[in-house]
Amino acid sequence: MSHATTAAVLITTALAASNGATGAELREPQHPLRRIRAEKLVYEAKSWKGRPPLALLIPLGTATFTLTRETVAGEPQLVLRAHARGGVPGYPLDATITSRLRDADFLQRLSDSHRVKKGYKRRQLRFHERGADYFKHKHCEAPTLCHNPRHLVTQPDGSKAHCRQFDTCENLDHFVWSLRYRHRSGTRMHDLLGALYLSRAFHVEVGGPVHSMRVVNARDIWDVQIHAEKEETVRVPAGRIRCIRIRLKQVPVNEHAQRDEFEGPFGLHGDIVLYADKETKQAVLVRGRVKLGATFQVEVALRERSVELLPPAPRPAR
Ligand SMILES: [Zn+2]
Ligand SMILES: [Zn+2]
Fold first, then answer.
1. What residue ranges of the chain have pLDDT lower than 70?
2. Ligand 2 being an ion, which residues bring their Cβ within 5 A of it?
């Protein structure tokens, strides 16, 4: 099934979880994410109409990716955030995806997708040892069963009654988290954003083995394969960067995953090509399609990046 959320375009997330041989790489103590205290990557997205030299450039906005560390209820976590802003006239976009991973082993804890424009839409995947539960934030639709006083509105005659404007009401006080689907799987899964970061541990090289991660998005589960095609130096606003050109191939894992509906990094669809910095594995340039009312061919390019490293860990005493 398709998610309009998808419109949460520039945003989202990319490769994902792991199984088999790749699991070890994701957990290895030398994982590149272990060295990072904080990181910020800023991207700009553009599309164009027509062909050069008459092509009309259409700026679509920016996407800002941050990695920070937080302790939640005593548990150190990595917090990944992708915030997209922009859109086109008539189709504004403002959406954030937040992915929380347990620092100790990168186990996915939460994936939260929160769109403000166009139209409020929020959903979560809450992960646990038996899999993950998919929730949507919806207007309460149980006026006869619900006793939440915050859902009451004043009627024309002055009395109070449960709000029944299920489809049009925008009062978030009336919204509740509604369980939509239970994923039950012992296989390690991540949201796309988590997968995008965790895949930095893969030893991706042209002619090398194909790595794969298991990604969950709403009801869909995919195995996302990383095919390294060639090395190439690309020029983006952040500079000239030596990259590996990667083609993402997605294999549906459950019955909900429809091949043409896969939503890749930055909310991109279609044939997705990603240039990853050969050194850091950060995404540098990504091409695909996006739906903002109409469908656009999109290029997302790295504009600036900053990283704050942790001091090297002391060697354990013998
Ligand atoms: Zn209610
Ligand atoms: Zn309401």
1. 1-29, 316-318
2. 163, 169, 171, 174
Judged by its nearest atom, the ligand closest to the C-alpha of residue 150 is 1
Which runs of E-coded beta strand occur in 4-157?
36-49, 56-72, 75-88, 91-102, 108-117, 121-128, 131-139, 152-154
pLDDT, tens digit (0-9, with 9 covering 90-100), for 22-74: 455 555 668 999 999 999 999 999 998 888 778 889 999 999 999 999 999 99
Each domain of the chain, given as residue ranges in start order, spans 4-143+164-306
Question: Residue 116 Cα, ligand 2 centroid: separation in angstroms?
Answer: 17
Q: Closest-lying ligand to the alpha carbon of 174?
A: 2
- Model confidence, pTM: 0.87
pLDDT at 29: 67
- Give long-range contacts, CB 8 A cutoff, 24+ apart: 56-60: 58/88, 58/296, 59/86, 60/9, 60/10, 60/86, 60/87, 60/88, 60/93, 60/290, 60/292, 60/296, 60/298
Cα of 167 from ligand 2 centre, angstroms:
9
CA of 132 to the centre of ligand 2 (A): 28
70 CA to centre of ligand 2 in angstroms: 34
* pLDDT (0 to 100) of residue 27: 56
Distance of CA 150 from the midpoint of ligand 1 (Å): 8
- What was the pLDDT predicted at 317? 66
The pLDDT value recorded for residue 7 is 29
Ligand found nearest the CA of 170: 2
